[in-house]
Amino acid sequence: MPDIKHFDPDTALVQVEELFWRDSADATSIQAVAAATGLNRSSLYATFGGKRDLYLAALRRYLRARAEPALRQLADDDRGLPAIREFFAELITIRCTGAYSGWGCMIVNAHVGGEREDTEVRALLNQHHRHLRDALQAALDTARRHGQLADGTATDAAADVLTLLAYGVNLRSRAGEDAAALRQTVAAALAQLEPPRDGDAGSGPRR
Questions:
Q1: From CA 169, how far away is CA 92, in angstroms rounded?
Q2: Distance between CA atoms of 159 and 135, rounded to whole angstroms?
Q3: CA angle in degrees (0–180, nearest 5) for 104-23-94
């Protein structure tokens, strides 16, 4: 007769995800996972497998539940630049305030940690990178249709720049940068995409 689980695997996976997100896979032992979830090793191994399997399951959940919904919303938004501004504003708010303040992004954390050496992890990171860039380009293409971009703006190149900006926001927030400084940087970057306003000299950030 199969064993009956006396815990909710989905709830346990959320706890595991948050542990790896906050502390990284390299710094998290299986003992720490057991302590955080209240489960013994045998239950963890029987349900999820070893530490690598646990991390992959947690990373996939982070992508599915936290990252991808925001990217789909951005790609489907018909407002153009206002949607991009809102995307970055919400990103900064999440990274700098609330329960997850200072944790950065689990995806970006993996890019700079030992986790990236795993080929399956690296495939997930590359997948997320493509989805982030594609969502930003979709929003930029919308902005161009609405006449919100400066003449000659290449949306593919701009999407590359904004993708790197999103990585930078995540890294700097984890390093302790304050929200106001991040907002100022994002505003300056987005101002470069807009058409000149009357009276602009044609150089420097447009405000």
A1: 7
A2: 9
A3: 25
d(CA 26, CA 114): 7
CATH code for the domain of 118: 1.10.357
Instruction: Take residue 99 and report the two structure tokens written for it.
Output: 């329960």
44 domain-assigned: no
- Looking at residue 63, what DSSP letter applies? I
pTM of the model: 0.90
- Hey, what amino acid is at 196? P
pLDDT tens string 163-173: 999 999 999 99
pLDDT digits (tens, 9 = 90+) for 76-95: 999 999 999 999 999 999 99
C-alpha to C-alpha distance for 150 and 100, rounded to whole angstroms: 36
* Rounded distance between C-alpha atoms, residue 187 and residue 185, angstroms: 5
> Residue 172 is part of which domain span?
63-191
Distance (Å, rounded) from C-alpha 124 to C-alpha 107? 9
Please tell me the total count of domains within the chain.
1
